[in-house]
From TrEMBL:
Lineage top rank: taxon: Bacteria
E.C. numbers: 6.3.2.9
Cell compartment(s), UniProt: Cytoplasm
Gene3D superfamilies hit by this protein: Mur ligase, C-terminal domain, Mur-like, catalytic domain, NAD(P)-binding Rossmann-like Domain
The name this protein goes by in its record: UDP-N-acetylmuramoylalanine--D-glutamate ligase
Designated gene of the protein: murD
InterPro entries tied to this protein: Mur-like_cat_sf, Mur_ligase_C, Mur_ligase_C_dom_sf, Mur_ligase_cen, MurD
Main location: cytoplasm
Stored NCBIfam families: murD
Transmembrane segments: none
Organism phylogeny: Bacteria, Bacillati, Bacillota, Bacilli, Bacillales
PANTHER family in alphabetical order: UDP-N-ACETYLMURAMOYLALANINE--D-GLUTAMATE LIGASE
Length: 467
């Protein structure tokens, strides 16, 4: 797409009234486009429509009008979650109308450098960690994208000496063409969201769009332990900085054994090694958080953050809500909220963070997977399991194949999610003894029962505190 000022007096359709849709609508209104904002939600469930209409923006709720997309439409900006099979999106593609997401628009309205962070797992933790490092180093970061505020909103606020630290999903990146971050990071690639993308190839190509417009003046931060990242590096034109928890890298962050200690090392562009911290000094659990730490440190140092600030935040960062979040301890039993684990790989990493076997609460939206990859992890890490949601039968089968004898199921569904989690916790406690851990790590998206993984995590925590 072009700069929003080129759409003055032209028809621009925004699909979706979420916060990102509101933000992008304001951008195009500022530049004089003829705007139509459309959302399938009924008007009485869309208070945002009142706000936009007060600004003079046309809003249509409850249906997709037949003439919503026509020959006069110059651009469609869709909410990332709206599938490409949606009728108005299909109509736009048939007419040759460009369809983008809000992040594509944002880069045209800012002079601030953008840091884009994506991956199948670890995005939120790494993005937040990076933001905290830049903040401690006086780099004036603004956190945006999937967390913080919409990138369009951040881009409008930012001055040239800000850094826009942005978490980006494959859904957002698929709708980009010219997006150009100064620093782009790919954490990992696992087979996920295939119900949206249709194939692993489309998923990977969407992730690659983060790097497609980078030049030799930009930086790509890549995971040296992830084969998909290594393969994608062959197509990348920017300078590459690596992170690894398994082996030494030429330029980047890696772990070094030194006299029984494990040091986090930054190897700069001159090949000089700088010890950042001992891995044991970090607050967060799990090997996967060492990966996230290494990625965040590499990004922050590439952005010019003072090394002392990076070291301090590596030690003190407490993590993010719903990601291996410690809730409380009751009667000697610890409770952890990992609601953000929406795929099996993420749950495997959560299980790996605990030395003792846990009582696992899992289950959610069925995307057609069989969850067989969890079998070995269940054998080694799960003492008992409580399943709920659409995948409960599949997860029960995996648990049985793993030899787990303590298996219980919650049949209550979306009609009463509070009761469902109360039942799950009651069943988990019936298996637990003093010293055990009860872990909510669903391995599935939340949408079969809950509006978001955040809602799922919040209700879990509230229920735990009320036990």
């Amino acid at each position: 797409m072009h700069h929003p000022n080129t759409y003055r007096s032209k028809k621009v359709v925004v699909l979706g009234l979420a916060r990102s849709g509101q933000a992008v609508a304001r951008v195009f209104q500022k530049y004089g486009a003829k705007l139509v904002v459309n959302d399938l939600k009924p008007r009485d469930q869309s208070p945002e429509a009142d706000v936009l209409e007060a600004l003079g923006i046309s809003v249509v709720c409850g249906h997709h009008p037949d003439d919503l997309i026509d020959e006069n439409t110059a651009l469609v900006v869709k909410n990332p979650g709206i599938p490409y099979s949606s009728p108005p999106v299909q109509r736009a593609l048939e007419l040759g109308v460009e369809v983008v997401t809000e992040v594509e628009v944002a880069q045209h309205v800012t002079s601030a450098p953008i840091i884009g962070i994506t991956g199948s797992n670890g995005k939120t933790t790494t993005t937040t960690w990076t933001y905290e490092m830049l903040k401690a180093g006086g780099k004036r970061p603004i956190i945006a994208g999937n967390i913080g505020i919409p990138l369009c909103e951040a881009a409008e606020e930012a001055e040239s000496d800000h850094w826009l630290v942005t978490e980006l999903s494959s859904f957002q990146l698929k709708g980009t063409g010219d997006f150009h971050p100064k620093i782009a990071c790919l954490l990992n690639i696992y087979a996920t969201h295939l119900d949206y993308h249709g194939s692993i190839d489309d998923y990977i190509s969407s992730k690659y769009k983060l790097f497609a417009n980078q030049t030799a003046e930009d930086i790509a931060v890549l995971h040296a332990d992830d084969e998909a990242c290594v393969q994608l590096s062959k197509q990348i034109k920017s300078g590459i900085v690596w992170f690894s928890v398994r082996h030494e890298v030429d330029h980047g962050v890696w772990l070094k054994s030194d006299g029984g200690k494990e040091l986090v090392i930054w190897r700069d562009g001159e090949g000089v090694d700088h010890a950042l911290i001992e891995s044991g000094e970090m607050t967060l659990r799990g090997r996967h958080n060492l990966e996230n730490a290494a990625a965040a440190a590499a990004i922050a140092l590439c952005a010019g953050t003072p090394m002392d600030a990076v070291k301090e935040v590596l030690k003190t960062f407490q993590g993010v809500e719903h990601r291996l979040e410690y809730v409380t301890q009751k009667n000697g039993i610890s409770f952890y909220n990992d609601s953000k684990s929406t795929n099996p790989t993420s749950t495997m990493k959560a299980l790996d963070a605990f030395e003792r076997k846990v009582i696992l609460i899992a289950g959610g939206l069925d995307r057609g997977m069989d969850y067989k990859e969890l079998t070995e992890w269940f054998k080694g890490k799960v003492k008992g399991i409580v399943t709920l949601g659409e995948t409960r039968v599949k997860l029960n089968k995996v648990a049985q194949e793993a030899g787990i004898t303590h298996i219980q199921t919650v049949e209550t569904g979306k009609e009463n999610v509070h009761q469902a989690l109360q039942e799950a916790l009651d069943k988990a406690l019936s298996m637990a003894q003093e010293g055990d851990t009860v872990l909510l790590s669903p391995a599935c998206a939340s949408w079969d029962m809950f509006s978001t993984y955040e809602q799922r995590g919040r209700i879990f925590k509230e229920t735990v505190h009320n036990l």
